[in-house]
Amino acid sequence: MARKEEPQKRERRERGSINPEDIIAGAFELAENVPVDNLSMPQLAKHLGVGVTSIYWYFRKKDDLLNAMTDRALAQMQVEAVMGDSGSDWRERLYNHAHAARRAFLSNPILCDLILIRSSLSPKSATLGAREIEHIIDDLVKGGLPLDDAFDAYSAVQLHVRGSVVLARLQERGKKYDPTSQAYYENLVITPESTPLLAEAAGRGRVGGVPDDYNFEYGLNCILDYTSRLLEQKPTPTKATPKKSAVRSSRAK
C-alpha cells in the first residue's frame, strides 16, 4: 500500500532571519485554511519554519498579530472599495461603492473575518476606518446631500453591505466544517397546501433571507430610492431678499 504523501514543510529558518512583514504574510497564508479566531502562534511558527519565540519577539500576544493583520486588511479594503469619481451623482457613487465593498469582502473572506466578524480594532485601524467614512460622507455632501441624509444613507448602506457579507461568510464557514449544516431559510418547510404564497414565490426562484445578488440589489435600491424621495420632498431653500431699509441705507451712502 502506497504511503500517503505528507505536505511539504518549509525549511527551518535561521535565527533572526524573519521580520514582522514575513510573519504577517505567513499569518494570512495560514488563515486560508485555519479560521482567524482559531489561529495560534505555535501553528504559525510551524508554518513559517521558526521557533515560536521568534514570533513573540515581534508580537507579544495573538491580539497584537491580529491587529497588524487587520491594519493591512483595512488598507487593502480602502484600495479595493474606494468611492472616488465612480459615478456622475451621489446615488451612482454610493451604489458603486456598495457593490465594490461587497465584492472585496466576498472575494477575500479573510478581510471579512478580520474587519467585520472580529470585533477588536487597533487604534490605527479605528482611525483609518473613521477617515474612510469621513471621505465618503464628504463626497455625498459635495454631491448635494444634506449632512443628515448623507450620514443616514451611508449608515444604512454600510449596514446592508456588512450584514449581507457576514451572513454569507458565516454560512460558508459553517458548511466548510460541517457540510450537513443548513441556513434558516433552507430549513423552512414550504408546501402548496400550508404556505401557498411562499410556494408560488419559490416556484419563481425567490428565496427569502438568502444573501444572494438579487436580494442584495433589491435592498440597496430600496435604501437609495427612499433617500431620493426624502430629497424630493424637501423644499428648495430660497435666497433671502435684502430688506428695503437696508437697500435705502446703502443707496444713501
Automatic annotation (TrEMBL):
Keyword set, alphabetical order: DNA-binding, Transcription, Transcription regulation
Record domain HTH tetR-type: where: 17-77
InterPro entries attached to this UniProt entry: Homeodomain-like_sf (IPR009057), HTH-type_TetR-like_transc_reg (IPR050109), HTH_TetR (IPR001647), Repressor_TetR_C (IPR004111), Tet_transcr_reg_TetR-rel_C_sf (IPR036271)
DNA-binding annotation, residue ranges on this chain: 40-59
Region named Disordered: 233-253
SUPFAM superfamilies: Homeodomain-like, Tetracyclin repressor-like, C-terminal domain
Pfam families for the chain: TetR_C_1, TetR_N
Compositional bias segments (type: Basic residues): 241-253
PANTHER family assigned: HTH-TYPE TRANSCRIPTIONAL REGULATOR RUTR, HTH-TYPE TRANSCRIPTIONAL REPRESSOR FATR
Protein name, entry field: TetR/AcrR family transcriptional regulator
